[in-house]
Structures are given as C-alpha cells and as structure tokens.
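Give me the 3D structure for Cell division protein FtsX.
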Amino acid sequence: MLQGDRASDRVVPPTGFTARLTVFVSAAMAFLAVFALALSLAAGRLATTWGDELARASTVRISAPEGQMAAQTSAALRLLQQTPGVDSARALSEAEQRALLEPWFGPDLPVDQLPVPQLIEVTETADGYDAAGLRLRLQAEVPGAVLDDHARWRRPLVAAAARLKLMGWVSAILIAGAVGAMVTLAANAALAANAQVIAVLRLVGATDAYISRAFVRRFTLRALTGSGIGTFVGVLAVFLLPASGETAGFLTGLGFKGWHWVVPLLVPPLASAVAFAATVVAARRVLGDLS
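Predicted structure for Cell division protein FtsX (291 residues):
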C-alpha cells in the first residue's frame, strides 16, 4: 500500500475533480469528527462530574420565625451530625447566602431584612445516608426543615449529558458513513472515466486485482492525506478554545484532557480504512459490470 507500483498508479488519474473532491471532503469530515469526539468526551466528563458532585451534596432548608431560626438550625445540625452516612454539615453564613442570590437579585439584596431560609450544606460519605429516614427525623424534630438531596436535579442533568455523549459518537459514525459514500462515488466516477484504459489493460493481460489495487491505493492515500489535514486543523481549533474556569459554562470546557488528546489521532487511520473498504467494494462492482 505504501510502496505502490508506478505502472499501476498510471491507471488512476493523478489529478482531476475526483482527487480534489476526495481530499477536500476527507479533510472536512475529519475536522467535524474531531469536534464530535470533543463534544462526546466533554459530555462524558460533565456527566461524571455532575453525578459525583451532586450525589454527595445535599441541602437542608430551614424556614422558621425569626425567634426560632437559631434554635431550629442548632437542632438540625445536631441531628445531622448524629446521622450515619453524613460526613459533615454546616450552616451557610449570611455572606454565602447573599452570594448565592446575587446572580438573580444583584449585589444590593438586603438579605438581613428578608425572610430568607437558613441553608445547611450537607456532605455525604461514600456509603451515603437514608434520605427517607432523615426526612422523617427532620419532620419530627425540626418542623421547619426540608431536605433536598438534589436527586430531581441530578438525574435529568446526568441524563442530558449522557445523551450529548451518545450524540457525539453517533455523529462520528455518520461522518464515517459520509466519507465512505463520498469515496464510493469518487471511485465509481474514476473507474467509469477510465473504462477504455481498463479494457486495454485487460487485453494486455492485466488482472482485475491489479487494476483494483491501483484505485484502492490512490483513493486510500487521498483519504489519509485529507483526513490528516482536517484532523490537524480540528485539533488546533479545539486547543485554541477558551479554557474552562470556575465560572465558565459547558461550551468553554469543550475539548480534550489527558489521554483524550490521543483519540483524534485515530481519525486519519480510521478514515483511510473506510476509504479502503469503500474503494474495494466499488472497484469490484464496476469492474464486474465492465466485464
């Protein structure tokens, strides 16, 4: 495949629209494949992060008259510290609660003058706690306390991230199918354009395997070249995306991390493998029709 045969290479025209089409489409599809893989891997990381962080964090919200707030907060903290599966529990300060409300109400919100519930941050152990039992105990001992284990938020977020991950892999598969279809069309066009050359080669004793090998090699290398260029540009574009920070959104975290940077390197060989298979099938069918 890499060494080639100069005589057989003359069977396939080195230039023309089929050559440019194969290289261009392979590059474009590889570029899109890199972003599809980046989306899928980033969504996978996001699902893991959301699942791990929200699964171990809970909140107790206490709504009580001003004179009873401190007593109920102390009772709730004491109960939480005695609950198996609770690693730590602490009441948020007034400044922390103001910071939580600031994105919605602005920095000048008078928290001390509003009936804002007291929030208690609860961190679970690896084994977790019995949420139903804890709710019953809070209801009995701290009537104004409500436990939120974030389950209603965690499940849809993790499910959405998992669907994004699946969409990324489905997009990569569809891109591979598009490359195969394009190479098949280009190979069919090249074989049909060289029908007279193929007939002469058969008259002088060339076998169909010899003729097919020339087309397969040329189109495989074209797909490899184009996908290599597209992969390089795609990786460069992903590398130049803004880095994710503490307040960054999901799209700023789109990219590769750690060993995931190796994944885009698989795109060129996979694209050339798809082109190889598509050209073999097209060459066999067209050469059979020309017999």
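Residues 27 and 216 are 18 Å apart (CA to CA). Let me know if you want a second pass.
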